[in-house]
Amino acid sequence: MHDLAPLTALGALAPQQETIGLVTLAEAPDWALASVTARLGQEAAFA
């Protein structure tokens, strides 16, 4: 088994928030995004 650690999008153990000037960047750990790709001609493997 892999030795995986649960990290946030910015790589920390807890959600981060950064404010630079008037702009605030905040993580939302209760949201999830996923992306799946397949090599050309191998799409059937993901069906």
Summary?
The chain is mainly beta and 47 residues long. The chain is 0% helix and 17% strand. The chain has strands spanning 17-20, 23-26.
Query: How many distinct folded domains?
Result: 1
Radius of gyration: 17 Å
Q: What coarse outline follows from CA principal-axis ratios?
A: elongated
Distance between the termini: 26 Å
Order of helices and strands: EE
Reading side by side through the largest sheet, how are the strands ordered? 1-2
Using DSSP, what is the number of strands? 2
Q: What is the share of helical residues?
A: under 10%
Q: Unreliable runs, pLDDT <50, ≥5 residues?
A: none
Our estimate of the beta-strand percent is: 15-25%
Features of the shown structure:
47 residues; mainly beta; 17% strand
Structure description:
Strands 1-2 form a two-stranded antiparallel ribbon. By secondary structure, the protein is an all-beta fold. The radius of gyration is 17 Å and the shape is elongated. The mean pLDDT is about 85. The two termini are about 25 Å apart. It contains no helices and two strands. The protein has one domain (about 1-45). Strand 1 (about 15-20) and strand 2 (about 25) form a beta hairpin. It has strands spanning about 15-20, 25.
Helices and strands in order:
Elements lengths: L16 E4 L2 E4 L21
